[in-house]
# Entry
Amino acid sequence: MKNLSTPAPPPDVTPAQCPACKSSSIVTAAKTPDIHSYWRCTSCGEMWNVARLHTQPPRYGGWR
# Structure
């Protein structure tokens, strides 16, 4: 039986790397990042949202 008095910790929503160039130099302007926060790679400039990343086909050679 599960203990309901201690809530589960929130899942880590910080991406480990850029989906385009695989760099780990990523930032967000969100004060409390969640799955709907937008992230920007400081290496290649790619901007993405974790929630939408898994629902849209990948962009190849997109606008930057």
User: Anything to note?
Assistant: The chain is about 5% helix and 15% strand. Strands lie at 26-27, 38-41, 47-49. The CA atoms of residues 50 and 61 lie 19 Å apart.
